[in-house]
Amino acid sequence: MDLDTYRARRERVLDELNPGVLVLFGARSATQYGSSDDDRPEPDVRWLTGFEEPDCVVVLRSGAERRFTLFLRPRDPERETWDGPRLGPEGAIERLGADAAYPIGELAAKLPAELENVPRLFYRLGRDRVADDQVLAALDRVRARGRTGVQWPCEIIEPARVVHEQRLRKAPEEVALMRRAAEITTVAHVAAMARCAPGQHEYELEAVLRERFRASGSERPAYPPIVGSGPNATVLHYRRNDRRMSAGELVLIDAGCELHGYASDVTRTFPVDGRFTTAQQAIYELVLESQTAALDATRPGATIDEVHRVTVEVLARGMLALGLLRGSLAEVLEQERYKTFYMHRTSHFLGLDVHDVGAYFVEGRSRALEPGMTITIEPGLYVPVGADVPERFRGIGVRIEDDVLVTEQGAEVLTPAVPRTVADVERACRG
Ligand SMILES: [Mn+2]
Fold first, then answer.
1. 3-class DSSP assignment, residue 268
2. Tens digits of residue pLDDT in 198-243
3. Which of 29, 156, 193, 321 is the most buried (most CB within 10 A)?
């Protein structure tokens, strides 16, 4: 993305500070031999500047002296031999369009001046105590100069209210990246379906996914892939991926790649031997029906809660029909008894974070969807091995998850080519 894109984002944020100063800390550098996953840039910093190095602080100041200041690691030929090139302060001015840039080591000395004569400080307190100390110390120093006529920020405001609200609505260039991430993830899921066979281990499918992601230019999985076969499919955050898979079982794969920071997040559940049993198919088609209903309900103006309610209603009705639950639909919904088998929410925001930023509730009410928002739609049904239900359903876990862009007209599935119907899934499993 070009400099103007980031400049425009900063301008939009600056307009909202009216007037104020925003202080954002970047990711901390990984330990010397840290894994590459520790190097993930801080998403807000990345979104506002395109800068991906760790150990930096972004300061945006609005008002009379409107400016973008960056504190970052200085050039250091010796360290750069080990860790690769650094942009350095001069580079930050040239290549990122910073109005001023200083070595990160000068933060304590220079931050107080950034906080002078602005009424509001936008800073996220409590996430990083080391950062908190530095910011509060700077604030204290400005306050101490109050006698000389210097004003200091008397309000500390959560920056999410400004930055995250803007990140929530994706611009076309962001949607393009998310579309590409979704395509890579699609190819990986299709490859895993084709590769799967009884006798393999879950990690062999994880390897297929990781290989496809990386071979297509994705930096990393957006989150650790879940490959859960048999009863493991009913464990929501299963991560071991080390079980040997057998014929007659389902395997649930929840995996998505990250591309230039943007996440995709897709789940599919398919038969290890390529053929659903009657009981598996019944559960699968119920989850599928609920997902279709949720997709139909996704449009501007609909709330995230409404989409969830539509999903839950289809699932609850189906659970009663299959004999997983007893009683009336009204009871099951009112007493939330469907939660025995469907205990999570249907959607989350998706973007630079897999569980992306943005408020789910506005003034106490579920938020209405708007064009440009990207969410997942991921109903599931998880029947524990020991559940008091007809035996054929025990130990079956199914989730179907797609990524969706809210459009002016309704919703566009960003992952339409991942096999979804029983026939398409079985065909993909045959390769
Ligand atoms: Mn998800």
1. strand
2. 999 999 999 999 999 999 999 999 999 999 999 999 999 999 999 9
3. 193
